[in-house]
Amino acid sequence: xxxVKIPIFRIAIVAIAMALFVALGGACTNPQDGxxxxxxxxxxxxxxxxxxxxxxxxxxxxxxxxVLFGQSAAFTGPAGEIGNGMRLGIQAAFxxxxxxxxxxxxxxxxxxxxxxxxxxxxxxxxxxxxxxTRVFALIGAVGxxxxxAATPQAHVAGVxxxxxxxxxxxxxxxxxxxxxxxxxxxxxxxDEMVARLTEDLDITRVAVxxxxxxxxxxxxxxxxxxxxxxxxQPVASWHYPRNTTAVKSATLSIAEADPEAVIMIGAYAPVxxxxxLLRRDIDPVFMTVSFVGSNALAEALGGAGxxxxxxxxxxxxxxxxxxxxxxxxxxxxxxxxxxEPGFVSLEGYLAGxxxxxxxxxxxxxxxxxxxxxxxxxxxxxxxxxxxLRYERADDNQGSDTVFLTVIGADxxxxxxxxxxxxx
Length: 423
Description:
By secondary structure, the chain is α/β, with parallel strands linked by helices. The chain has two domains: about 5-185 and about 320-390, Response regulator (Rossmann fold); about 185-310 and about 405-415, Rossmann fold. The chain is about 40% helix and about 15% strand. It has 13 helices and 14 strands. The protein has helices at about 5-25, 35-40, 80-100, 120-130, 145-155, 185-200, 215-230, 250-255, 270-280, 295-300, 325-335, 345-360, 370-375, and strands at about 65-75, 105-115, 135-140, 160, 180, 205-210, 235-240, 260-265, 285-290, 310, 380-385, 385-390, 405, 415. It has a seven-stranded mixed sheet, with helices on both faces. Strands 2-1-3-4-5 form a five-stranded parallel sheet, with helices on both faces. It has a two-stranded antiparallel ribbon with strand order 11-12. The longest helix is centred in the first third of the chain and has 20 residues, at about 80-100.
């Protein structure tokens, strides 16, 4: 983590929330919200709620017979498949718990709002979920720029911010004592990439294509740090505008540098387009991080996906021999028999299970403080073999595990230990 940046973030966290509120004129209407609400109501097992029922007991979102969670994520646009996958996994975990009587007699409910992977929508959604819907906790946010807009509000309000789908370094700041990260960081993912490229294939010419926002720059910084530790620097680094597939100029510049490997920090649609364009001129090793949306990337690449590497932060979602994956398969099939297992929905399921573990630890006398303290005092949280551990009160990341996967000739992901055996 870049420790120089942390004090600035701490000092500015309240100011950021207030400035965003003023900049947005105190309100922001998401044009996708209506369509998303209709989709939620149409789903046979939707846990979204249209209104609050009953009287709160203590902290917001706690009722006699249910606990209310909130989610702001992208359900449309270039990152839409990621948000839909996270919501699917969370809903499967909640549905599984509810079928068994809930947690200490309370059903789990989820209110999801679409932010289209835009920071201003994420800000207004988060404000509404906290102040109007009055959720107990926020869960399954998608993306670094959107999390940057949401986190200050959640921190000031003391609302648990559970398992955001991002490995951004700023979310690992111990000052954010309301955040419970599930996954390994982008720094850990990119370090694994550089380690494998240099140690397995003796590659020295690495280029970086990144999204021009806080997500892309966080991933870029991770690559730069990993290269610096090995006394290297990228032969080229170029960016593209977020929420677009406008990667042509960036790929032309990268191709001119003739790299042996290209690390990409982006979403599935622009990354797939970049691979297509780069392969017209060069034949490097392609690697990208988990946020890309692995299943959507493989589908977008089709037959051209073979040999593309993706670092993951959860196990292979097709491997039913892994206990947590087998449990996920059962829960997913019960909630939505038509749904296909995937990395993102598996992470969403684990996010839901982490929330459930926190609720179980508190018993019937649930509070936000008990929920957060419980995670840090639990030692190891064992989710059917997938273990999370928050070592100290200032440790807000549960897992450090990074898995290396590659798209095979069959279009499926396969876990590998190194780059030599997979070639």
